[in-house]
Write a structure and sequence with these properties.
The complex is a heterodimer of chains A (116) and B (861). Chain A is mainly alpha-helical and 116 residues long. Helix content of chain A is 54%, strand content 9%. Chain B is α+β, with helices and mostly antiparallel strands. In chain B, helix 3 packs across helix 11, helix 4 crosses helix 12 and helix 19 packs across helix 21. Classes of the chains: A mainly alpha (116), B alpha+beta (861). Chains A and B meet through helix 3 and helix 4 of A and helix 2 and helix 3 of B.
């Protein structure tokens, strides 16, 4: 998918963005993703299984994430997920969009106080 | 994880589509376990998420179907129109069925209302009317029944509020209102105190209250004069108040109700003329009531000679009022369901034809990994969307057709309440879902598992012969059901026609009968007062310009009523309780001439037959056949009952006339006629024969002479025999109009089915025809080939249809009037109609087949 098309997918559903972030560095299984997001947002965002797996399935269908063949040794029941190249571009585009938003907010003096 | 927790979570997981559940069940359960979430919370989370997913998929399917359908407007138009016809017909018929049959009668707890009947165990005769003392007996002695009330029709002339007005009223016994459980709009209904002699309480209708009493709130207590007697208004009945008349099985809306005068008199037990309604006590059943009534009957039999061999029983009021219409309406509903099947077969056929053009699309998507289940679901979504569009259009169609058919439906009870209401809309929803499944079934089967390789290879041209035979089979179904429906409608139509043409024993053209004229005893106390009125009124009528002849009579053919009396025959003995019964009519001289009833033997009545001359009678053929000892009634002597203040008499039979019918449905009755002068009854009709007078002219003339002869008399209204026939056949006409509409729709759908399948097969055989034409085939051979195949399918449909129609004809046999359910002419006509229709439907495709250009057809690939 060309880059311009990736921008058409924005803005992302915040939960989807968090899932992408959670597996940006390392591949994780479902429960680990939910735990990681909870930790990274200080418990602000909790993904229940009923939210998480439909999201994962949709991202698999859309090709943003890939499912790893279960490795022996680790938890055999768990499927591991990692970012696909497309997923990485989508996440980057979303981060970029947010970055521009933040810059805009600064130019309107909305983030001055926090600047430390 | 505990078993209970596991079970609950597994149940919740069922909310997900199966493929999702298969893949993620283990992980979801694992996560719930690891996170130690509360079972209920987790189960709700899972179930909600599953439903969301399903809804999303459903919305996707609908949106996808809508996008696809938007590209094929003609297909959408044809299929939704087909659905609209089928669903509209069903919603309309359901509305009629529901309003007439299924809705409860407008009384409190109507399921517990019963009407009385009795059987004469000697003659097996069944009758519905009781006498005042009998009603009182059952009120006191039947513990299973409460509020045993009587009702009988009456008529009276209202004076003192402008021009005299003829009113239709009911004489009731007070418990009737408690039995029906209806509250008055104003004032009160009758109570036991109203039975006292001399009090004249009256309840008037809402309509009369508004039209003649200015709808005033102070109406209660005011006087009103009926037939010269002053009554006191005690209440106003609610608007649309109707009372069931057990003998007629009809609900009537009376103008007024007063207390049955016999209640206050020492009336005779044998005077059985009052319809009787009661309410089952809580906990009592019909069976229990009838067991008790049998005991009461036996007790009465021992006490009174007239009760000998009479056994009373009750049956549900609903049976009495609606019983006659159940068969007809369920037949029509069955026909509507037949239409629904035809509709579904037709839609399946169109969708199959369109879908075989889509085989490639489905094969391609299947090869690309779409599950067959998803493809089937999408196909179902399309069918559902089309059925929904058709359903909305169908409901609109039902509204319009009910409005259009309303006059024709007047023959059904409660016809004025027929409407497309909430339950009809609910029914429409059920029908939309059912048709979606039924119409979508074959296409789903055929398309959800296309054999991928051959379709892709053959450039989309291949078409399985299996799918072809499915389509032919569907057309056979359509044709067979259409034939059955058209045949049954044909039978009903022919029966209706026979009914309107039936010979009732008179010359109908130019014959009019007036509404009933009654002479109130307050103003006509003596028999000679009545006779004097008869003479003056008849003379006035006979002298009217344009009147060829006129006569007076108690009864007239096709009146729907008869006055049955016991009689004796001098020289023969009948055991008490088994005396013969015959219909009685009191007539003026000239009655037979006016009616056009031929005199077969003897003489008619003349002006010389006066009250003081020899008592005589004339009998009809049936009477003669049943009772004349050697086939000739003239000279017989009869012992006849007294009527309306006249005494019993021994009468000499002086003539025999042809039979007439008082009702189309019943057999001829034995009847004897007596001279009006010898039985000067106080109510009668005027019969007028006039070749020229119009309805308006006659109405005006009758009003004029009524006013001249007696200013307090309400003007009699003339009815022609065409009116009487229309009234008598209204019920059949209503059923026939509904069935006829359904049959036309069925025929139309079957035609379009034949057209579709033939047209499609011509397209498929395009190359074959091209080659045959190139090789020199004559146009005639091609046409015969196409028509032959169409007729083969139609012929099979007709054969099956005849079997279905034969079974259906057995069911409706009881509704046919003097017609065999297997009437060969009707069947032959219907078969010819179907064959001709098939040829007409196949003609265009057949001609198209002859115009195939060989060059184009062969280049096509």
């Amino acid at each position: 998918m060309p880059k311009s098309d990736v921008r058409d997918l924005l803005p992302l559903n915040p939960k989807a963005f968090h899932v992408l972030l959670a597996i940006a560095g390392e591949e994780r299984h479902g429960y680990a993703i939910a735990k990681a997001i909870e930790a990274e947002t200080d418990g602000m965002i909790r993904l229940t299984p009923g939210t998480l797996y439909p999201l994962i399935r949709q991202m698999l269908v859309d090709g943003w994430i890939l499912e790893m063949d279960g490795e022996d040794g680790s938890d055999a029941r768990r499927r591991l997920y990692r970012l696909s190249a497309l997923g990485r571009r989508v996440a980057q585009a979303e981060a970029q969009r947010m970055n521009e938003l933040v810059r805009l907010a600064r130019s309107h003096k909305l983030l001055v106080a926090v600047q430390g | 994880m505990s078993a209970g927790r596991r079970l609950l979570l597994d149940l919740a997981l069922f909310a997900y589509p199966p493929d999702f559940r298969r893949v993620y069940r283990r992980e979801i359960l694992g996560d719930v376990e690891e996170s130690n979430a509360a079972t209920m919370t987790a189960a709700f989370d899972i179930a909600a998420s599953g439903l969301r997913m399903r809804l999303g998929l459903f919305a996707n399917d609908i949106a996808y179907a809508a996008r696809r359908l938007a590209r094929m407007p003609l297909f959408v138009f044809i299929v939704s129109l087909t659905f609209a016809l089928g669903i509209g017909a069903n919603v309309a018929v359901f509305s009629v069925l529901n309003s007439v049959l299924l809705k409860p009668l407008p009384y409190n707890d109507p399921g517990r209302l019963v009407v009385f009947r009795y059987v004469n165990t000697k003659t097996s005769a069944l009758a519905a009317d009781l006498s005042v003392p009998e009603i009182a007996d059952f009120g006191k002695q039947a513990g299973t029944l409460s509020d045993v009330g009587g009702v009988v029709r009456n008529q009276a002339t209202l004076t003192g509020t402008g021009r005299p007005l003829a009113l239709d009223g009911l004489d009731v016994t007070p418990p009737l209102f408690a039995a029906l459980g209806v509250r008055p709009e104003l004032g009160r209904f009758f109570g036991a105190a109203d039975e006292a002699k001399g009090a004249h309480p009256i309840v008037i209708s809402d309509r009369l209250w508004r039209s003649h009493f200015g709808a005033g709130g102070d109406i209660v207590g005011k006087p009103v004069v009926l037939d010269g007697t002053s009554y006191q208004i005690v209440g106003v009945a609610p608007a649309d108040f109707k009372v069931p008349i057990p003998d007629e099985g009809r609900l009537v809306a009376p103008d007024y109700m007063d207390v049955q005068p016999d209640v206050a008199l020492p009336s005779t037990r044998g005077a059985q003329y009052i319809g009787t309604i009661a309410r089952l006590r809580p906990g009592a059943t019909i069976a229990a009531a009838n067991a008790e009534l049998k005991l009461v009957s036996l007790r009465l039999q021992r006490l009174y000679p007239v009760e000998a061999s009479l056994v009373y029983h009750v049956r549900p009021l609903e049976d009495a009022v609606l019983g006659d219409f159940r068969m007809a309406l369920w037949t029509v509903f069955g026909a509507a369901l037949g239409i629904l099947i035809i509709t579904c077969a037709n839609v399946s056929n169109i969708v199959l034809a369109a879908a075989s053009a889509r085989d490639r699309e489905f094969a391609l998507r299947s090869a690309l990994g779409a599950s067959s289940r998803r493809l089937a679901t999408q196909l179902l979504a399309e069918t559902g969307l089309l059925a929904t569009i058709g359903g909305v259009a169908g409901v609109a169609l039902a509204y319009v057709s009910i409005a259009f058919l309303r006059p024709a439906l007047a023959g059904f009870p409660r016809a004025d309440s027929i409407s497309v209401d909430g339950s009809a809309l609910a029914y429409a929803l059920v029908v939309v879902i059912a048709t979606t499944i039924l119409a979508g079934f074959w296409p789903m089967r055929a398309c959800a598992r296309p054999d991928v390789a051959p379709v892709l290879n053959a450039a989309g041209r291949a078409d399985s012969s299996a799918s072809n035979s499915t389509r032919s089979a569907l057309v056979v179904v359509e044709v067979s059901l259409a034939l059955a429906l058209v045949a049954l409608t044909g039978l009903m139509l022919r029966s209706y026609y026979l009914m309107t043409q039936s010979d009732i024993g008179i010359r109908q053209n130019g014959l009019w009968v007036s509404s009933q004229i009654s002479l109130p005893s307050s103003r006509f106390p003596a028999l000679r007062d009545r006779t004097s009125f008869h003479d003056r009124f008849l003379a006035a009528a006979q002298s009217l310009p344009g009147v060829d002849s006129a006569a007076l009579g108690l009864n007239y053919p096709l009146s729907g009523i008869h006055f049955g009396f016991d009689f004796g025959i001098i020289g023969r003995h009948f055991a008490p309780g088994s005396e013969p019964v015959a219909s009685m009519n009191a007539i003026s001289p000239g009655y037979f001439d006016t009616m056009g009833i031929p005199l077969l033997r003897g003489r008619a009545f003349s002006a010389n037959d006066r009250s003081d001359s020899l008592p005589i009678a004339i009998v009809n053929e049936t009477f003669e056949r049943l009772y004349a000892p050697n086939g000739d009634a003239v000279g017989m002597r009869l012992q006849t009952a007294g009527v309306d203040g006249t005494g019993r008499a021994t009468r000499m039979v002086v003539g025999v006339v042809r039979d007439t019918r008082d009702n189309l449905a019943r057999a001829m009755r034995a009847t004897y006629y007596v001279p009006l002068t010898q039985t000067p009854i106080d109510f009668f009709s005027l019969d007028v024969r006039s070749a020229h007078l119009s309805r308006a002219g006659l109405t005006a003339e009758l009003a004029r002479i009524a006013n001249a002869v007696d200013p307090l008399m309400a003007p009699p209204v003339p009815q022609s025999y065409a009116d009487l026939f229309a009234g008598e056949t209204a019920h059949a006409r209503s059923a026939v109009s509904l069935l006829g509409t359904l049959a036309a729709i069925a025929l139309l759908l079957a035609l379009s089915g034949i057209f579709g399948v033939v047209s499609y097969s011509v397209t498929q055989r395009y190359r074959e025809f091209g080659i045959r034409i190139a090789l020199g085939a004559a146009a005639r051979d091609i046409v015969l080939d196409v028509l032959g195949r169409a007729l083969a399918v139609t012929g099979l449909g007709i054969a099956i249809g005849i079997a279905i129609a034969a079974a259906g004809a057995r069911v409706i046999e009881s509704q046919l009037y003097q017609l065999s359910p297997f009437d060969p002419e009707t069947f032959a006509l219907v078969i010819a109609l179907l064959l001709a229709s098939a040829v007409a439907a196949a003609a265009r495709p057949a001609i198209r087949a002859t115009r195939v250009d060989p060059a184009v057809a062969l280049r096509c690939e």
